Amino acid sequence: MMRSTFFGFETAKTSIFTNQKSLDIVANNLANVNTVGYTRQYVNRASVVVNGTNNRVASNMIPVLGQGVQALGVTQTRDNLLDQRFREEYAQASYHGDMATILSGVQTALGDGFDITNTSGMIGAIQEVYESLYNYMQEPTLDTQATLVYAAFNNICTVINQINTNLENCMTQYTEDLELDVSYVNDLANQIAYLNGVISDEIMNGVSYNDDYGPNELYDARNLLLDELASYGDITVIENVDGSVDVKFGEDYIVQGEEYDQMFVNTDAYGTVWVNWVSSGQQIDIDSGSIMASMEVLNGHGMYASINGQNFSQGIPYYQNMMDTFATGLVQIANTTVPELDEDTGEPRTDINGAIVYKTLLAANTGDGGTKLNGITAGNICLSSEWVDNGANYFIFNKDEYIEEYAQQLAYKLTESTYSFQANGEVFNGTFGEFFISLTSKLGSDVSFHEGRQEAYAIVANAYLDQRDAISGVSSDEETANMLMFQKSYEAASRVMTTMDDLLDIIINRTGRVGL
Amino acid sequence: MRVADRTVNRQYLSNLNSVKSDFQKTSQQISSGNRFTAVSEDVSAATRVLRLRLSMHKEEVQHETVGYVYDELSAAEDNMSDINDILAEVYEIAIKAQNGTYDDDDLAIMGTEVKNLKEQVLNILNTKYNERFTFGGSNSSSQEPYSFDDDGDVCYNGYKVDNISKNDDGDYIYTDPDTFTETLIPMENDVYFDVGMGITMQGSQVDTTTAFKVSFSGLDFIGVGNDNILTLLQNMEDALNSGDVDSVGTIESRLTIRTKEFRANITEMGSKCNFLDNRLSTLERSIDTAKIRIDDLMGTDYEDAIIELSMNEAVLTALQNMASRILPNSLMNFI
User: I need a surface site. Which of A159, A304, A405, A419 has the fewest CB within 10 A?
Assistant: First the structure.
């Protein structure tokens, strides 16, 4: 058996180098303990492999065994399955969270739903109409009492207009938010594709990295972007051999290696908001995420959505239609209750067919100072020009006789009897107050449902996040323990060198010098 | 299981946020007195609260209406009592006139007294409560319902009361003595108020069993035909002025019968006031019940809330201690 004189120094040196690199990585881990998206790294080490197949003849391998340790590479600890599961749950949590947030905004727009103690909303306006009519009934020939009715109906029209404006503002605001989201998703796709290119270049040049050990920091940056992307829609990540990834956003590829697609937002003539791919012009097809939430609320027409692009959610258009129905019903009742007076008979005036001629109390604002009777919406309902021009006492049936019955009938129709509200293919039979309460209840239920689902998905997503961190996160305790371990190992290797030095000192300086 | 530092931090911050949110919510509940305000926080309770608010408001308005009607009826009852007192005075004058000791001048003086009393009755019958004549049906015009025409005959809304009668439908009609043409007396529209009896309507017609009639036709009280109180008072005045004591006796007898009927109306008016009094009490109870129900549904249970607040404080303190003592520590602190 024959070994080289300085063999042990080489062995100890591999240990010193490897432990020094391990300490570097410990330092890197500790430095990034709070860095968002950072994945724990470690030095992948192995004992130096020795084989004798290079020799022409069989020889004893013992002299060359024990050549120390080698650092194979620096790797990161990551579980792709957990990434995918986390992103799925994150997309669902984002979808429900955004639904809850947006619908809460709609709830605020409706007023009473946001604060049921509020007296200046629709419930308060209905109450004011009721009260004014009952006050009017006590003295139905007085202008002052008619003025109260006039003011109450003016107020309820204003409240309906305000709710409509609030809903339109919601529509505008959330469409703009969607455009920002889409723009950001486009940026994310661009950045992921760019990183794909950098990563594959790094790996393919073969100098710094190889198939097993890639550019960890770039991986982290890309994973962080993928996590963010998952909040906007359900994504699927497919790894390629060159280190790049393909990413499907819903059913379509948004990133393929260094190539990426873009999306754009478009509102058509029917008010339907579309998010389409630039490459194909097709609508995106996703099942979760915040973009999905925005599209559902912006295009939600309820269970009888009919036009392509509309969906069955009870979104902003649904509540706009409902408020239009409310306004139409109010006009229909107000304009078919108080008759005009036939001065000759003291009875309601009739037309040539014998039908009673009613006063026009409410109408639609034409925008040029006039009013019209067709095309009533929540946005244009107002007091009729007849009522405004003739003054509040236009409401009075007969100034010389105590006729309270029409005011009583109006109050009865609005607050007691059943009116059939028909909108979005739905039918609601009840009073105006009950109709509005049912609207706020539906909205409240939806908000509550999505808040609950968001909470549930967030818990699951957080559980996956915890599991992922259990693998990928930095533990300062663990790093400290590793630091101690590598330090001791380094000290041991140094000690080996000292020992080797002592041995060589015996051989070189003291052997054969006995008696000198 | 490995525990990464950021897991600890994230969970800590998440828990801290959750506890602070609970703390804020409990504080809000205590300070506002409401367990919640948004429908989405408790859809079922909120929906019931909104419904209760609507029905309670109706009852509050109905309560005001009942109060108004009660005042009007009380005023009418007072007026009727005044008329009753006047009729008693007329009765005394009639009895005095019949004892045979007065000459024509004395009787004429009594006739003047009866005239004054008749005019007082006329004034009372033309009394207004706000804009409506108390005994004028639905008359709210500037034209008083009762008057004497140039012939000295009593008229109601412009028609001679002597020629007014009630038809089979219960409506007052005027029959022209020359042509026998019948005309419905105008402004005799019944006025009904919703006093919380579950009003129902057919078109503009109230179901009379579900509302309270507040209009009074004076004809119901003073009578129609030539036996009405005003005509009898006029006849009494004329008889006294002409010294016709025998006629005074006859008229006094007819007036006594009419006065008894009139007193029955006062009694009925009193029972209506009692009914309204009961309605006021019923509505007040119902409103109180609704308020209690609303408070049950959305009001803060202060005992629960204060205990909850104490627990929130304890948890928050524990979390803050954890942040200051445990989180900063790691193995690094011990080497």
Answer: A304
Which residues does chain A have within 8 Å of residue B132's beta carbon, measured at their own beta carbons? 139, 141, 402
Quote the Cα angle for A242-A245-A250, to 5°. 155
Q: Which residues of A touch B5 (CB under 8 A)?
A: 33-34, 473-476
CB contact under 8 A, A116 and B46: yes
pLDDT reported for residue A187: 98
What is this model's ipTM?
A: 0.85
A and B: number of Cβ contacts within 8 A: 192
**Which two structure tokens, joined as six digits, stand for A151?**
């003011």
Give tens-digit pLDDT for B155-177: 998 899 999 998 888 889 999 99
Say if residues A102 and A92 touch (Cβ distance below 8 Å): no
Counting every residue written for chain B, the total comes to 335
Nearest CA-CA distance, residue A409 and chain B, Å: 6
H or E, element range at A267 = strand A263-267
**B311: which 2 tokens?**
């627990």
> What are the φ/ψ torsions at residue A125 (nearest 5 degrees)?
-65, -40
Q: Which residues contact A110 (CB under 8 A, 6 or more apart)?
A: A121, A122, A163, A166, A319, A439, A440, A443
- Residues of chain A under the 50 pLDDT cut: none
The pLDDT of residue A202 is 87
The ranges of chain B with pLDDT < 50 are none
Residues with Cβ within 8 Å of residue A239, at least 6 apart in sequence = A80, A245
**CB–CB contact B43 A480 (8 Å):** no
Q: What is the pLDDT of residue A402?
A: 85
The pLDDT, as a whole number, for residue B202 is: 86
- Contact A437/B47, CB-based, under 8 Å? yes
DSSP for residue A37: T
Other CB atoms within 10 A of residue B143 CB = 14
Give the pLDDT confidence score for residue B91 in this predicted structure: 94
Q: Render pLDDT for B7-44 as a digit per residue (tens, 0 to 9).
A: 888 888 999 999 999 999 999 999 999 999 999 999 99
Is the pTM higher than 0.90?
no
Question: DSSP strand E in B88-196: where?
Answer: 128-129, 132-133, 146-148, 154-156, 159-160, 164-166, 172-175, 182-184, 192-193
Contact partners, residue A29, CB within 8 Å, separation at least 6: A40, A41, A474, A479
Residues of A in contact with B297 (CB under 8 A): none
* C-alpha to C-alpha distance for B30 and B314, rounded to whole angstroms: 17
State the Rg of chain B over Cα: 37
Among partner residues B37, B61, B191, which is closest to A134 by beta-carbon distance? B61
Show residues of chain B in contact with A473, CB under 8 Å: 2, 4-7
> Is B39 within 8 Å of A142 when comparing Cβ atoms?
no
Q: Cα–Cα distance between B268 and B76 in angstroms, integer? A: 12
What is the pLDDT, as a whole number, of residue A59?
67
- The single-letter code of the amino acid at A244 is S
Amino acid at B165: S
Q: Which of A170, A115, A102 is nearest to A447 (CA)?
A: A102
Q: CA–CA separation, A442 vs A400, rounded Å?
A: 47
* pLDDT of A513: 64
CA gap A86, B297 in Å, rounded: 40
Query: Alpha carbon A6 to chain centroid distance?
Result: 65
Burial of A345 (0-12, 13-18, 19+ CB in 10 A): exposed
How far is residue B328's CA from residue B99's CA, in Å, rounded to a whole number?
A: 118
User: Taking the alpha carbons of A65, A66, A70, A72 in that order, is the dihedral positive or negative?
Assistant: positive
How many Å apart are CA A292 and CA A283, to the nearest integer?
Answer: 12
Q: Give the per-residue pLDDT at A57.
A: 64
Q: d(Cα B214, Cα B119) in Å, to the nearest integer?
A: 25
Question: At a CB cut-off of 8 Å and minimum separation 6, what does A121 contact?
Answer: A110, A111, A112, A115, A159
